[in-house]
Structures are given as structure tokens and as C-alpha cells.
Design a protein that fits this description.
Largest sheet: 4 strands, antiparallel
Shape: elongated
Pfam families: eIF-5_eIF-2B
Number of strands: 4
Bound molecules: zinc ion
GO cellular component, one term: cytosol
Region (Disordered): 74-131
Oligomer: single chain
GO molecular function, one term: GTP binding
Radius of gyration: 26 Å
Domain W2: 185-300
Strand order of the largest sheet: 3-2-1-4
Length: 300
Amino acid sequence: NERFIVNGSHDVNKLQDLLDGFIRKFVLCPECDNPETNLTVSAKNQTISQSCKACGFHGLLKVNHKVNTYIVKNPPSFNPAAQGSSLTEGKRSKRVQKQKNENSDGSMSNNSMANNSGGESDGGNGTNHASQTEAEISAAIPEKSITEDDDDGGWSVDVSKEAIRARLQDLTDGAKGMTISDDYDKTEKERIDIFYELVKNKRDNKQLDDVPTHKELLIEAERLDIVNKAPLVLAELLFTENIIHDVRKNRILLLRFTHNNPKGQRYLIGGIEQTVELHANTLMSKVAGIFKIFYDLDIL
Ligand SMILES: [Zn+2]
């Protein structure tokens, strides 16, 4: 018996999409698409500015993202990309030779993957947040790293496709580590699963007719931030071949999630559709009637 598809098999892709979006917004240079950027956090001005080592772009980060606020309030003090730091290291000498003369400013860089062999440059980053928030902090997603080996006159970026891909992989791995380390950031799928188990438990214990249970379920859905999608879970657990009976029986509970909530209604419609599909033989011919009942009961 397969679960209704909420994110289902797209989970991994979705995470990848999120990470790609994140990298595009916070890491890649808006001018030249290189990941060789520094982010500078100004706690005072509540801004994050980005500068590009490859093309010299400099500007404020345009995105208005929750993460911005988070970064401003919590300047990075660890290096999530460190775990992948050796990936591109081998290419460095080649790069230095090739581009020795192109760049000699030796400024701060977040090209830690190429220059940080694993923690040596972390020394300056471990200070606590409180002492950092005053000053302008050179920070980066994933992390800054002070270049200490400029004795050869500096280095520049390896902009080969392969090197960029490797660095993006580093960033992705690092960001994944950040994501799963935080319980608050459970994936939506995980949060929906939690809700699913709760509803299933209530159903199996025949508690779904109790108003206190309805309240409890709504509160839990709100806590999990999945109120809109909750009707999909309810549909999956409550609707059977006998959906017309089911909807009458569970009207009050459904209303808790769909009343004045168009998004919730849309997900309920999705749940109805999947129920019909599941029992196509008996329900397909009754679709119109089924929807009419939902409308008549003011659930939709
Ligand atoms: Zn650039």
C-alpha cells in the first residue's frame, strides 16, 4: 500500500534543487557565475555584500531570503565545506603556474577548498558570535579562509568546468551537513511523515471523532508547518472506496484544515483525486458526485 505522493521520490531532487538555488543565490557571482565569491556580513547595516574574485564584481546580495537574516545574526564560525577541502587541492599548483600573474592582491578569499588543507586556517574562526557581531565580518557561504600561502605572488581561481563542479560539490556537501544537523530543519517529507503517524495512531485508536483530537492535530500540523498539506495526509488515511461515507463522517475534522484555506482545499482535492485513482473501478464514474458532496458540506 503506497503512500500518497507528497514529495515522495522527488525528495532527493528537491533537496538538490534547494541547494542549487541556495548556491545560486549566495555563492555564485551574479556577473560571471563563478563560485569564487566572498560574502561580507555587516551586522550593523544588516547587509551581506558579495565580491567576486574572478571578475571583480562587488555588490549587495540582492536576495531577500530567510537565510540572509540568519547569516546576519549568526555570522559563520565554522566551515561546513571543510569536509570536502581536499577535493580540488591537487589542482592548485597547476593553477598557480597558469595564472600566477593574473592576481596578486592576496586578499581574503573563501576559496577554502583549494587552500585549506583541513583546519589550519580555522584558528581564527572559532571565536564566539558575540564578539564578532560588532565588527564587519568577512564571512562566506560556506566559509571564509584567510589565504596564508601567497609567498609565490598570489594565486587565482581555477575556472575550469571541472574545478567549479568540484567546488560546487564541496559546497553542496557542506550545506547538506548543515541541514541535517538541525532538527528544526527537518525536511517537509519528514514533517509530513510525523503528522501521518499521529493521524494514523488517532484513527487506529478511534479518536478521530473527538474535538480535542481535531485541535491536537491542527496544532501539531501548525507546529510542523504543514497545515496546507495536512489534508493530503487526512485524505490518505481517511478516504476509502467509501469516500462518500468517509467525508460525511470526518467533515468537522476536514473543515479544521480547509475552512478559509484555499491551499489546504487544493491539497484536499489532490487527496480526493488520488483516492479516486486508487479505487478507479468504483469511484471514477462518481467523481462529479463526490466533489459535489465536498462542496455541499462546505469543505471545499
Ligand atoms: Zn564574477
